[in-house]
Amino acid sequence: MSTGNIVGTIDAAQIAMITFIGFFIALVFWLRREDRREGYPLEDALTGRTLADGGPLSSAAPKTFILPFGKGTVSVPNGNRDDFEVNAKRRENFGGAPLSPVGDVFAAGVGPGSYANRAKWPDIDANGNPRIVPMGLVPEISVASASTDPRGLPVYGADGAKAGVVTDLWVDRAEHMVRYLAVDTGTKTVLAPMPMAVVKKNTVIISAINAADFAGAPFPANPGEITRYEEERTVAYFGTGYLYANEDRLEPLI
């Protein structure tokens, strides 16, 4: 009767097991090479010295990605480092120590105000059109009759003072939802992230920042669209306020 051996004491089950183990080890190395296309090589948190990349088993050859809608190509890894400085200082002299913003907290890019330098073109829908635009440009989207239309309502900040009045809604034409509120502060119009707003019957409350801080919020350079870069800055500006708008927010809860 056949024992199932192919050569000597090596049978089909043993070959299958060895093949699986070899494939799994190769898969781990392949995944580690692919996930190092961005963010590597690492750098020392204290000195900024670039660390070793791990050798050929941990470094993938450059791969070129074609961006949609004719936005060019991107090749990674490319060895580029961040081209901007974080306006913050380390509180203690050890890696992982907390950072304190230096100068204008809303421009420091620290903590809840962190941001990435995203592309300077709008997010695009499947048809090649900017996704986030003023609602007036998308007649098929409107505020549900059962919901409060925030247009015309006063906006109040974290300090309870009036920051301005909602003049328009910026909507995501792909997701059919409001992304930003256009707020007229009296001196300029700014965009406030909708998820940070509480719309009540007669008022809108945005507790992220104080009323006076609204005047410093960024606004798109093109009145009819917002770039990914501008979105990142807008959300970071309001996010900063959750920690730095008032000094009592810097203290522990207990």
From TrEMBL:
The keyword Transmembrane helix applies. Keywords: Membrane, Transmembrane, Transmembrane helix. The keyword Zinc-finger does not apply. The chain crosses the membrane at residues 12-31. It comes from the Bacteria. Residues 5-136 form the Photosynthetic reaction centre H subunit N-terminal domain. Gene3D superfamilies: Photosynthetic Reaction Center, subunit H, domain 2, Photosynthetic reaction centre, H subunit, N-terminal domain. InterPro entries: Bac_photo_RC_H_C (IPR014747), Photo_RC_H (IPR005652), Photo_RC_H_N (IPR015810), Photo_RC_H_N_sf (IPR037097), PRC-brl_dom (IPR027275), PRC_barrel-like_sf (IPR011033). This is Photosynthetic reaction center H subunit. It comes from Novosphingobium taihuense.
